[in-house]
Every structure is written in structure tokens, then in C-alpha cells.
UniProtKB/TrEMBL annotation:
InterPro entries noted in UniProt: DUF6551, ParB/Sulfiredoxin_sf
Region of interest (Disordered), ranges: 255-284
Name assigned to this protein: ParB/Sulfiredoxin domain-containing protein
Biased composition (Basic and acidic residues): 257-267
Length: 284
């Protein structure tokens, strides 16, 4: 029996104008335009790398089908319609071959984890990362991907809290949690940290933090999370929002003025104001 092995020429590197490139949507994923715009705004040539293309032949214009790199291509076009990209050019491929190559590249690509990105940003001196880690360390905690007491792993959540209310909100959130549960690792679960921050942010000075701490101490972090998950049956929203509602419910069961439940915790209550730290309030 005769067998035939198809040997294709090895790919080669060349610079191609974006006008020579196109995307075959019969196998390519849809373009994420916001992603392309972000890439265009933060464009750094050394980080763009080499795109993978297939030469469809001189009788087709545009000539080169993008196999890998359509968002870099779109970003380059947004920046400059006459831009040039470095490409690894494959020849002798059918559209089916291109689709297979696209799959192989995507499947074998090593994707960065959230921690990989965080560590890289730390190394680059990212001010947001440094701000988060400064607050965490001041609270007597550690930023690390380890399920041990004293470790804060929810760095993405911490970044959201920082964006919402700056270092003061993150500091107050971690201070409250450590006052209630110490350095127990489950206390720093993302939904609970985020939910606590949402409550502190929305109600501001209208909430009695000492009363809140006394209310929360009787419920374990695991119970808070379980109640938030169970609340999905009756309430709509993200897990952090549901955790915030559970915290409010817990607070309202104690003696004293009750809190109204907002539709959006990220919007401050008109009476929120700016609450002074308890130490300053006691000194006045």
C-alpha cells in the first residue's frame, strides 16, 4: 500500500502591512473590540510579538489570513492604518489546515494565571499592586497564594475594593475582618471581603462598626458564605452583593437602628459621609 506524506515548506518571518492581512471568520473567534481598543491604548511594540498567518496566494487580496493574532492586528489598525506587523508566514495551507493550526496554537498556549500577572505587575512596580500589598502588610497579613492563616489570596477583590474606596476602604475592611475572625484563612474569601467592603462603603458613617463587629463575630466565615449562596434562591446579584445583604441582615437583627437594603451597594448612601477611625472618634 502506498502512503503519501505531504511536506510543506517551513514558515518564514517577514514584515507585513496590515492592509495585506485579513481574518477568516469561518474558524476565528469573534473580535473583542473593547479588548482591541485597550491593546491599542497600551501599545508596546516589544510586547506585541509575532503573529501567525497563512499565505493564500498572490491571486487573493488581502493575501494573508491571520491564524493567531487578530486582536493585535485590530489594535494595530486602530493605531495606524499603515502599520506593519512581524509575521510567521505559513504556506501551502488550506482553510481547514489553518483552522487546525489555530486550534493547536490556542490549545498549547500557556496561559498566565492571575497570580502570574500579579507577580509580574509587582515586579514592574505597578502602583495598584504596591498599594494593595502595603495595606495588607499593615494589617499584619500576607499577600500570597497559600491556603494558610494570615494569607490574603483574593488580590483581584482587593484591587476592586481599592478602586471603589481607595486604601482607606481596603484598610477598614481588613481591619474589621481581623477584629472579628483574626487571621483565619476563610475570613479572607473573596465574596466575604468584597461584601464587607460594599457594606462599609455604602453606609459610611451611618453604620456602627462596633455593633457590626459584634453581630458578625457570632457567625463563622463559612456560614456567611453558605447563607450568601442560599440567598440566590430569593435574590439576584453577584455573590459579593449577596454576602453584603447577609451582613446587613445580621446587623439588623441586633438592637439599634436598622439599615435599608440598597439595590446598588457601590453607590454611597446620601447619609454616608466620611467616618473617622474609631480611635480618633474616641479621642475627641
Amino acid at each position: 500500500m502506498n502512503t503519501t506524506t505531504t511536506t510543506r515548506p517551513a514558515p518564514y518571518i517577514a514584515a507585513l502591512a496590515v492592509s495585506e492581512l485579513f481574518v477568516d471568520h469561518s474558524y476565528q473567534r469573534p473580535l473583542d473590540l473593547p479588548r482591541a481598543r485597550r491593546l491599542a491604548e497600551s501599545w508596546e511594540p516589544p510586547l506585541i510579538g509575532v503573529i501567525e498567518v497563512s499565505d493564500r496566494g498572490s491571486d487573493q487580496q488581502p493575501r494573508y489570513a491571520i491564524v493567531d493574532g487578530q486582536h493585535r492586528y485590530a489594535a494595530a489598525k486602530l493605531r495606524d492604518p499603515k502599520a506593519v506587523l512581524v509575521a510567521n508566514i505559513h504556506t501551502g495551507l488550506t482553510p481547514r489546515d489553518e483552522a487546525h493550526l489555530f486550534y493547536e496554537i490556542d490549545a498549547k498556549r500557556t496561559r498566565l494565571t492571575g497570580w502570574d500577572r500579579w507577580n509580574a505587575r509587582r515586579g514592574a512596580g505597578d502602583p495598584t499592586v504596591l498599594a494593595v500589598e502595603s495595606v495588607v502588610e499593615d494589617a499584619g497579613l500576607r499577600v500570597e497564594d497559600s491556603p494558610t492563616n494570615g494569607s490574603v489570596r483574593c488580590v483581584s477583590t482587593c484591587e476592586k475594593v481599592l478602586k471603589l474606596g481607595g486604601q482607606p476602604l481596603l484598610r477598614e475592611t481588613l481591619s474589621l475582618i481581623t477584629e472579628v475572625w483574626g487571621v483565619e484563612v476563610e475570613a479572607f474569601d473573596a465574596p466575604l471581603v468584597h461584601g464587607t467592603a460594599l457594606v462599609l462603603w455604602h453606609y459610611g458613617k451611618t453604620i456602627n462598626v462596633e455593633r457590626l463587629a459584634d453581630a458578625m463575630v457570632d457567625v463563622s466565615p463559612r456560614q456567611f458564605k453558605a447563607k450568601a449562596v442560599a440567598l440566590r434562591e430569593y435574590e439576584r446579584g453577584s455573590l459579593p452583593k449577596l454576602a453584603a445583604l447577609v451582613i446587613v441582615n445580621t446587623y439588623n437583627r441586633t438592637k439599634g437602628p436598622k439599615l435599608d437594603k440598597p439595590k446598588d451597594f457601590t453607590k454611597r448612601s446620601p447619609q454616608a459621609g466620611v467616618r473617622r477611625p474609631a480611635s480618633l472618634a474616641a479621642a475627641s
